[in-house]
Write a structure and sequence with these properties.
The complex is a heterodimer of chains A (316) and B (279). With 316 residues, chain A is an alpha/beta fold. Chain A contains 14 helices and nine strands. Chain A starts with 9 loop residues before the first helix and ends with a strand. By secondary structure, chain B is an alpha/beta fold. Chain B has two domains: 31 residues, no CATH class; 224 residues, Alpha-Beta Complex (2-enoyl-CoA Hydratase, Chain A, domain 1). In chain B, strands 3, 5, 6, 7, 8, 9, 10 and 11 form an eight-stranded mixed beta sheet that branches. A two-stranded antiparallel sheet of chain B has the order 1-2. In chain B, helix 4 runs parallel beside helix 5. Chain B is globular and about 45 Å long. In chain B, 54% of the residues are buried. The chains are: A alpha/beta (316), B alpha/beta (279). The interface between A and B is large, with 56 and 64 residues. Strand 9 of chain A pairs antiparallel with strand 4 of chain B, so a sheet runs across the interface. The structure holds zinc ion. Zinc ion binds next to loops of chain B.
């Protein structure tokens, strides 16, 4: 697969390639010094570019085709992962994956939306857009986790719930609503992580929990910037403005009282180093779960409901 | 059954698409020209083809509740434009204009009332207020109505009509889906009944939260009910949608509604359910 390079990544990648070239001749001491200088330069460049990303550029990073997806985190974070399939009602949705596995030696239930990386796998995963059976599979697995007193971790990464005829026939809205309702009072800890795209109800459908974490370059909102542009500006051309207006980045969501903690990404974004991204997340998850594990179920549920009940802004 | 009575209080223009406000109105179903008085007598439904006109919360609360029993709560709650949202116009201006035009403060009114003398807590949406969209105010008013229902142990009734979450409050709007559903889980755990009434249209975030979570789910005939809007689905699949798709009768057939009830029988039906659950 051809490497995807975003416009603002170009100067960084070019410089990195130059350094790579020079390394081939690194026996030469003079060049070694020059390499160090260039490395400092690329680090500074990367830092300054990433410190000044627009909201739209972050959306692009969140959608980067090389970004780690749910199964990449499973691979790098968990041991003994056993994937489980099906909602026991209609079928098995490939856009949602889940199963038991061990995080730092302890059993958790991990559930996430799953995108594909090429045309074939994207068709198989329906571009990460769940149907009702995906939400129902997720709920079945969460209830299974609760039955055996295991905590739940959900990874959000979807461009939205699938808008299709069959999805509506099988109750897309009911499936999402039911999950919000049941997740609210599930008697085990739930940690939610927005790893990439958090598009609307489709993402939120597995997104109610005790702690809401969000990767540095993920986005989360009620609508994708393009769709927002098409509705409010009546044109597809205002996606950058829409992204700004929606305030959909991790720091924005912390300000809005929705996200509890930002998960830092490796230099240049999570797509540059899957293993490192996963190890950062793993460490944070272990920490969060250790804290949540000590809270009694009724207190946990009460606090969770109060947390969501406090969200919003109004005056009277 | 309750007869719709017009009082000075409920003569409020709800905007052009909403409660018909001219003397004569063309039926959206069969094209019949109907006189205002006749329309009111029929609770804003067509006597010939049963087409249900969109009505505002005033009209709906009037037809659902015993006369004079409604006592509104949280009347002053209003949006603060938390994100300073601007598209082709400012959200704050949009709010001001809509308030002026509709006489409402947001897209839902909540309160207590009685149905055939049975006390209830009620929330009723107004599609005329920015497409009945759910933002922080709608979420908070519903949450407070649920608190009231838990405290009094009186059944909760929510009448929905909404295009979904309010875009201008972005993620905060999205969180109202979780907020209202979480509060309903609490209400459910407390064993207090909740009846959801869906009117035309009930789509997006409202359907994907409280509208679909009733202990009893009721819809009006012909109401459009769904998650994705028909236009979006059509665009995605590139095909025409089947006739009757996402209409109340379709959802009944697919198993997501308990019943489809004509507006003229709504009060009687809800009353019967309340009585069955209480005694
Ligand atoms: Zn008619």
């Amino acid at each position: 697969m051809a490497k995807t390079i975003l416009e603002f990544e170009k100067p960084i990648i070019e410089l990195e390639q130059k350094i790579e070239e020079m390394r081939k001749y690194s026996d030469n001491l003079d060049i070694a010094e020059e390499i160090t200088t260039l490395e400092n330069k690329v680090n500074q460049l990367r830092e300054s570019i990433f410190a000044n990303l627009s909201r739209w550029q972050r959306v692009q990073l969140a959608r980067h085709p090389e970004r780690p997806y749910t199964l990449d985190y499973v691979h790098h974070m968990l041991t003994d992962f056993v994937e489980m399939h099906g909602d026991r009602r209609f079928g098995d949705d490939k856009a949602v994956v889940g199963g038991f596995g061990r995080l730092d030696g302890r059993t958790i239930m991990l559930i996430g939306q799953q995108k594909g990386r090429d045309t074939k796998s994207n068709l198989y995963r329906n571009f990460g857009m769940p149907n009702p059976e995906g939400y129902r599979k997720a709920l079945r697995l969460m209830e299974l986790a609760a039955k055996f007193n295991k905590p739940v971790v959900t990874l959000l990464d979807t461009p939205g719930a699938y808008p299709g005829i069959e999805a509506e026939e099988r109750g897309q809205a009911e499936a999402i609503a039911r999950n919000l309702f049941e997740m609210s009072h599930l008697p085990v800890p739930i940690v939610v992580v927005i790893i990439g795209e958090g598009a609307s109800g489709g993402a939120l459908g597995i997104g109610v929990g005790d702690r809401i974490l969000m990767f540095e370059n993920a986005w989360y909102s009620v609508i994708a910037p393009e769709s927002c542009s098409s509705i409010l500006w009546r044109s597809w051309d205002f996606k950058e403005q829409a992204a700004e207006a929606l305030k959909l980045t991790a720091p924005d969501l912390v300000d809005q009282g929705i996200v509890d903690r930002i998960v830092p990404e490796p230099p240049g974004g999570a797509h540059r180093n899957h293993e490192q991204a996963a190890s950062i997340l793993k460490k944070i998850l272990v920490e969060e779960l250790d804290t949540l594990r000590k809270i009694k179920p009724d207190k946990l549920v009460k606090t969770r409901i109060e947390k969501f009940a406090a969200m919003g802004a109004w005056k009277e | 059954m309750a007869w719709f009575r017009r009082s000075k209080e409920n003569i409020v223009s709800q905007g052009k698409k909403e409660t018909p406000d001219g003397l004569w109105t063309k039926c959206g179903g069969c094209g019949e020209i109907i006189h205002r008085r006749q329309l009111e007598q029929n609770l804003f439904t067509c006597a010939k083809c049963s087409f249900h006109f969109r009505v505002g919360s005033r009209e709906y609360l009037n037809l659902l509740l015993d006369d004079g029993s409604f006592s509104e709560m949280d009347k002053k709650l209003h949006s603060t434009d938390p994100l300073g949202f601007v598209d082709t116009k400012k959200y704050s201006d949009r709010l001001k204009e809509t308030m002026k035009k509709t006489g409402l403060t947001d897209a839902v009114r909540t309160g207590t009332g009685k149905i055939d003398k049975q006390p209830v807590v009620v929330a009723c949406m107004d599609f005329a207020f920015i497409g009945g969209s759910m933002g922080s105010v709608v979420g908070e008013k519903i949450a407070r109505a649920i608190n009231k229902a838990m405290k009094t142990r009186h059944p909760l009734i929510i009448v929905s009509s909404s295009g979904g979450a309010r875009m201008m409050e972005a993620a905060l709007s999205l969180m109202q889906l979780a907020k209202t559903s979480a509060k309903l889980a609490q209400l459910s755990d407390a064993g207090v009944p909740y009846i959801s009434i869906m009117t035309d249209p009930t789509t997006g975030g409202v359907t994907a939260s409280y509208a679909m979570l009733g202990d009893v789910n009721i819809a009006e005939p012909g109401a459009l009910i769904g998650f994705a809007g028909p236009r979006v689905i059509k665009q995605t699949i590139g095909k025409d949608l089947p006739k009757g798709f996402q209409r109340a009768e379709f959802l009944l057939e697919k198993g997501f509604l308990d019943m489809v009830v004509h507006r003229k029988e709504m009060k009687e039906t809800v009353s019967k359910l309340l009585s069955l659950l209480a005694h």
